[in-house]
Specification:
The relative contact order is 0.11. A hairpin with a 5-residue loop joins strand 4 and strand 5. The chain has 3 domains: about 160 residues, Alpha-Beta Complex (Spore Coat Polysaccharide Biosynthesis Protein SpsA, Chain A); about 70 residues, no CATH class; about 100 residues, Jelly Rolls (Sandwich). It is an alpha+beta fold. It contains 8 helices and 25 strands.
């Protein structure tokens, strides 16, 4: 809804335009994208307000939600939704022509703008952006599509694998090992991803996933790895690595009132202009050249320079070449929520 409001209010996209929303984690071929385009075109020609893409199942999975269509035509009205049934129930639904819910939606911009105003009180994109963190955390399925009576589903028969699980991820990996890892000759059907700067040795492992990063280490049987979500939620630890549009963000050290971060900023990219109310920051340029802006004042920086940013100050870094920066955050409260974004550009 936020993205759609942005398209309308900021980019001036017309209300009659059709929109498609797709998950980022399936492994697909080009025919999938052709199907999504066909889905969008169907919105323009049929009377339905909302359309979904349903994948023809290859096995009775317990991991996916199912869409039960009214008939077996390429486009059908939706009879009902079923949320992650057990294997026996999934087999029965597939016999009835059920489809996997791929999480692909298409609708007109007018429909989603009207629906968003029904569900959320806001005036425009900027108002919605300010309220975004406080909105109810609920999926589009639960909030909209499962309550919509005027809805169709389009069948998709092509390649589609949800690599949101480690087991599926291993099926599409070109190699068994990513990173500095060694498997002995007794390992079977085992996949390893190592993002740490230390070697990893696996011996006698069978049908296993081993994943090691700054966020944590997973050692799991492949089949069992699909049930890790509730355990990860119990850990509740902060993300130690993030890939951004402008580069990467790696946490090096966390203390009671400070955090040290390595920032890689790609050439000709910038952070968003922002401020923090609860912490100050110190940047040390390890490599590269660029400029910083602090409270509207622009200054060129190079390797070896250090910049201090006080609490409440607006700031950004722009990279003229690839840059590596060590950022030290100091404050009684260090939180990802302590960030206010401004729209000025430099």
């Amino acid at each position: 809804m936020l993205a759609s409001t942005y398209l309308h209010d900021i980019k001036g996209v017309g209300l009659s335009e059709s929109i498609a929303v797709c998950p980022v984690d399936p492994y697909v071929h080009d025919d999938y994208y052709k199907a999504v385009i066909s889905l969008m075109k169907s919105i323009e020609t049929v009377s339905k307000k909302l359309m979904l893409l349903g994948v023809e199942p290859t096995y009775p999975s317990e991991k996916y939600g199912y869409i039960i269509p009214e008939n077996d035509l390429s486009i059908s009205s939706v009879k009902k939704f079923v949320e992650k049934p057990d294997r026996i129930s999934a087999e029965k639904y597939i016999e009835q022509g059920a489809l996997w819910n791929a999480g692909v939606f298409s609708f007109s911009l007018e429909y989603i703008i009207e629906k968003s105003h029904e569900l959320i009180e806001y005036s425009d994109y900027y108002d919605l952006l300010e309220k975004y963190e406080s909105l109810e955390k609920i999926s589009f399925d639960y909030a909209v599509s499962e309550k919509e009576t005027n809805i169709d589903v389009m069948r998709y028969k092509g390649e589609w694998r949800d690599v949101g699980t480690w087991n599926m991820m291993s099926e599409v990996m070109s190699e068994n090992v990513k990173g500095n890892a060694l498997l002995d000759d007794k390992c079977e059907n085992t996949h390893v991803i190592n993002e740490l700067g230390i070697p990893l040795l696996c011996m006698g492992c069978k049908n296993m996933i081993v994943a090691a990063s700054n966020d944590g280490i997973l050692v799991s049987d492949k089949e069992t790895s699909g049930y890790m979500k509730p355990y990860v939620e119990k850990l509740g630890n902060m993300a130690m690595f993030a890939e951004k549009s402008w580069g990467t963000f790696t946490v090096l050290d966390v203390q009671l009132n400070s955090m040290t971060v390595n920032i890689y900023l790609k050439e000709n990219h910038s952070m968003k202009y922002h401020s923090h109310e609860q912490r100050s920051e110190i940047w040390t340029i390890v490599s590269g050249n660029g400029y910083v802006v602090v409270d509207g004042e622009k200054k060129l920086v190079k390797t070896g320079d250090t910049i201090s940013v006080s609490k409440g100050a607006k700031h950004l870094i722009h990279a003229q070449t690839d840059m590596n920066i060590i950022e030290i955050q100091i404050g009684e409260s260090i939180s990802v929520k302590d960030k206010h974004i401004f729209l000025e550009t430099f």
